Amino acid sequence: MPKRRRESEFGLSTLEKVQQTLRRRVCRIEIPPKEIIEENLKEQRQHLVDLISRCAIRGEGNSALVTGPHGSGKTMLVSSVLSEIEANPRVSKNLLIVRLNGLLQTDDKIAIEEITRQLRLDNVVGDKVFGSFAENLAFLLEALKSGSDSAQSILFVLEEFDLFAYHKNQTLLYNLFDICQSAQTPIAVVGITRRLDVVELLEKRVKSRFSHRHIHVFNSLTFPAYKEACQRMLTLPSAVGDAKFVKRWNQSIETLCSNSTVHDVLKKAHQLDKSICGLQSLLLLPICRVSDDHPEIQPVDLLESSKHLAADSKAAMLHGISVLQLSLVIGMKHLTELNDGDPFNFEMVYNEYLKFVQRKAHVVQCFEKPVVLKAFEHLVALEIVKAVDGHGSRTQKEYRAMSLLVTPAQLMDVLNTHPGCPSELKHWASNPLPS
Amino acid sequence: MEGTTASEMEDPLSILCRQKQIALLRSLMGEPSHPTYPSVFIYGHAATGKTLVVSTLLKTLALPHAFVNCIECQTTRQLLDRILDRVANHEPSPENNYCSLNRCENMNTFVRLLKKTTEDRGIQNQTVYIVLDKAERLRNMDGNILPAFLNLSQLSGCNVCVLLLSQIVWEKFLFGFGSNHVEPFIIHFPDYTKGELLEIIATDCPEGYSVEFYSSYVNLLMSIFYMVCRDLNEIRHLAQLNFPKYVEPITKGEASEKDSHKLWRNIEPHLKKALQTVYLREVTSEQWEKFQRAETGQPGQQTSQPGILSARAQMELPFYSKYLLIAAYLASYNPARYDRRFFSKNHGKVKKSAVNRKKETSHQLLGPRAFPLDRLMAIFYSIVDSRVAPTANIFSQISSLVTLQLLAQVGHEDQLDTPKYKCTVSLEFIRSIARTVGFDVIRYLYDFVK
């Protein structure tokens, strides 16, 4: 195994460390330093810091929503703020943080258990039975008060906030916002969501208790900034060790980023997706490829990675089907065009296939109906063809209404690259048989 | 995949024709302590080595992993329990009463327990791999399961990587509710080319024959099957099954290994028959082998085909049930307005409207249409010669035809008043039924008469 070999060679530990550092960045584990976030999201960040510290120090109840599209750095912003808050002793000694996620706490019962756990009140609650959710929550907050004379502030961070809005009666949200509003324990609620219309999901009573403070985070990177972000993500800090190596590496990154191929690749990526997430997945492969035999990132690596990401998966799957299945797909394409997109069934496809085979009997072998049916069912299993009325219908499989989920353009692409595809089949695909 | 167990192949590099994918996966995994991408989605056709590559890699590198097949897990709890057991290296056995270590009902508990389990085993620094085979089944589970798995490393704070294996492309995994998911890293396992298939199948060459001889045989076999089937498992299975037949002239001394033409002439009709029977599983492999042995005993006698399942078109039914079924078939495939012409004694003149006729597609293509009970009974009475009283018996036969799935009830099941039915049998079947009662169905079918 290469792993053993590497151990003995020179420069191993440095490369290891390089991987460790860079992988942490692209695999979304590390939060970028404060300065980088401040550069783009200064206002938003300040807003959040103010809001939370006011809650912690002055005991103001407050609520806010951080919204923005996928990969725009909402979670990153909040975690960066949280790490700053925790570092500030004046704020952190008076603030408890409860983090909830809509994907994990799928109903209010689980959520309240999780809140109890995160506030470390399991032993206080014990086996008590509560009449209502509000009572339970009030008890939890009361229990926090009893420890000291003044009430502790609590910060609730609700990730995937829109999923909490699907809970029954939105009890959790109602109670949290209600406590925010009324002068009980000072709590701050920060929701993180991708949906811009999330407020419309809230019930009227919940909506009226929400402070309507929105913090928008958008992907507004211009191309030069995007390119710079790319370079920054690849540049090593001096702490990695072996100053000579780090210097050489950073120089190589600089030349890499000024390369024209890289420029084109990044430009294309930027046009498709401005988010940092897209950049991270673009850089993942080149970073993973770095090894002893390949100690520097080359422009080709980036090019390959962008090709990998852009691959059309449906065409790739079509590439692997047999000639018989391919001729069925062509038949289906013609049927769909003939009937203006109406669904078809197996019998029609088989009829179409027979018509073709009888004309060009020497090209494609004529297979029996059960063999063709098996091929057809395989296409259904691959979800290249889909039943229109779901699986519950009680008609025979031969007569079930189906629709094709492949575009003609995809099909033509595949026909040109398919290994061993007879040219008659290609001809048939572009010219339907006269009926 | 099933043909070669992982124990046979110790080194992942010995897996044929998958070097590129293995290298890609290895570089993604990195060293055990490296952080990894939260989720990797691997797709490709059946038998392209997805499971084999992933499981061999994980086993040979001795990485902590949990390999779970999603088909085996009906509920969320089964799935989550099993993953935790595998991560903790716990195997349900008679000693522990087949219990799993934890009782994990939802994702929230799972994330907590996963962290605890890795800490208990002392592997919190290593990447834990969770492999979910047949991941398309996850779409049918609770909506939060798949998005949560995709971002498990962030949700749990553990160093964990989720590998999803599927035959279905990633686009079909995008869910209806919200878009609260993280895109996985996507890897495609391409299908094997013809040459690669040959190379792989040549590895299980039986003893006593040269590899070239066996691969030339597989080549012949593929010339018949490759158009229909590109599945490695299937071709490999057929190759093993039909090999005794292929070498039969050699064992008998009629030909030598060099006589490829003679061998080909001997095997070709045999393989064509296999395409229609074994490939469709109408004959089990065991029956097929028995049939081959019997045939070698008496050469030239091909009539002794084994009891083929394609005797689909044979079914014993009571007399009136047969007529009911025929009537249902006629009602399903004939337009109602032609009933007069077919079943009434003195029907009016048949008007020929050439314009209309051209546009109609045959009902044999469109499939059966629903008809009300009254129409079924009317046709039934007109085709049965004797007088039949509409007894409870007759009606109960209709409903038992429905339970036999020869008829299907359309619409609401609780409708007692004028229920509608559809006939769900093939033309072949109805013709063989009609033959037993001496009734000519074709003469009454609009598609064939017009």
TrEMBL record, chain A:
> What range(s) does the Origin recognition complex subunit 4 C-terminal domain occupy?
228-414
Gene Ontology terms describing biological process: DNA replication initiation
A GO CC term?
A: nuclear origin of replication recognition complex
Q: Where is the signal peptide?
A: none
Annotated ATPase AAA-type core domain ranges read: 65-212
Q: Which GO terms describe its molecular function?
A: ATP binding; ATP hydrolysis activity; DNA replication origin binding
Q: Which Pfam families match?
A: AAA, ORC4_C
Q: Which UniProt keywords apply?
A: ATP-binding, DNA replication, DNA-binding, Nucleotide-binding, Nucleus
Task: List the InterPro entries hit by this protein, alphabetically.
Answer: ATPase_AAA_core, ORC4, ORC4_C, P-loop_NTPase
Query: Which compartments does it reside in?
Result: Nucleus
Q: Which PANTHER family match?
A: ORIGIN RECOGNITION COMPLEX SUBUNIT 4
Function, as annotated, reads: Component of the origin recognition complex (ORC) that binds origins of replication.
Family label = Belongs to the ORC4 family.
Name of the featured protein: Origin recognition complex subunit 4
Gene this chain is encoded by: LOC110989689
UniProtKB/TrEMBL annotation, chain B:
What positions does the domain Orc1-like AAA ATPase occupy? 16-162
**SUPFAM superfamilies cross-referenced by the UniProt entry:** P-loop containing nucleoside triphosphate hydrolases (SSF52540)
Principal location: nucleus
Q: Which organism is it from?
A: Acanthaster planci
Q: Which domain of life is it from?
A: Eukaryota
Q: Which residues form the Origin recognition complex subunit 5 C-terminal domain?
A: 317-445
Q: Name the Gene3D superfamilies for this protein.
A: P-loop containing nucleotide triphosphate hydrolases
The biological processes this protein is annotated with in GO are: DNA replication initiation
Q: Is the keyword Nucleotide-binding assigned to this protein?
A: yes
Q: What is a single molecular function from GO for this protein?
A: ATP binding
Q: Name the InterPro entries for this protein.
A: AAA_16, ORC5, ORC5_C, ORC5_lid, P-loop_NTPase
Q: Where in the cell is it found?
A: Nucleus
Regarding protein family, the annotation reads: Belongs to the ORC5 family.
Q: Which GO terms describe its cellular component?
A: nuclear origin of replication recognition complex
The protein depicted here goes by the name: Origin recognition complex subunit 5
Residue span, ORC5 lid domain: 214-281
The alphabetical list of record keywords is: ATP-binding, DNA replication, Nucleotide-binding, Nucleus
